[in-house]
Design goal:
184 residues, three-stranded antiparallel β-sheet, single chain, 2 domains, alpha+beta, 5 helices, four-stranded antiparallel β-sheet
């Protein structure tokens, strides 16, 4: 199908590429899950415990702010039985709880409580927290990358940085000027 499409330069791609589950899954695994994606703005989660759900492909990611003010990107799936630990699209919580067996996860994704598991010799709660995505806050925008081996954020956007940083420098200078002016 790809070879046939390449033989038609200047033509729109075949409708197959828009509807194909194979193309969709390939785009998710090779492009979307490996890229830095804008997920939210820090103003959407200003306080500890605030969260927003972000749907990416067929996965759900919880963008949350922990008690220390740090932003986290948590995969919204319990490591025990695969249930979603958060269903509401936004809100404020102290923990996330799996509805299946009641496992409780902290805002940073670490496992807080797993009922009746502490007595097991092979149980290590530090190994069973929610999986995380890489997260980067840049100029108030929260970006995530689901690929643990993905490029560093600054490396990935380095081609765009000169223009962005010059705008940031201008914004910084405007703020400095605003602070030095006297009120009327």
């Amino acid at each position: 199908m790809v070879a046939a499409q390449q033989e038609k330069p200047g033509y729109a791609i075949s409708s197959y590429f828009y509807r194909s589950p194979v193309v969709y899954q390939t785009e998710l695994s090779q492009l979307i899950y490996r890229s830095w994606i804008y997920a939210a703005h820090v103003s959407e989660i200003p306080s500890p415990g605030d969260y927003q759900l972000f749907e990416i492909g067929e996965d759900s990611v919880i963008i949350t702010r922990s008690a220390d003010g740090k932003v986290h990107a948590l995969m919204n799936i319990c490591r025990h039985r695969g249930a979603r630990v958060c269903e509401e699209p936004s809100g404020n919580r102290k923990t996330f709880v799996c509805p299946y067996h009641g496992w409780v996860f902290n805002l940073d994704g670490s496992l807080r409580v797993a009922r009746e598991m502490a007595s097991r010799d092979d149980f290590d709660p530090s190994e069973l927290g929610l999986k995380t995505a890489k997260v980067e806050v840049f100029m108030g925008m929260i970006y995530i990358n689901c690929d643990p081996d993905g490029a560093d954020f600054l490396e990935a956007v380095s081609g765009e940085l000169p223009g962005v940083l010059s705008l940031r420098h201008l914004s910084s200078r405007l703020r400095q000027n605003a602070h030095t002016q006297r009120p009327l």
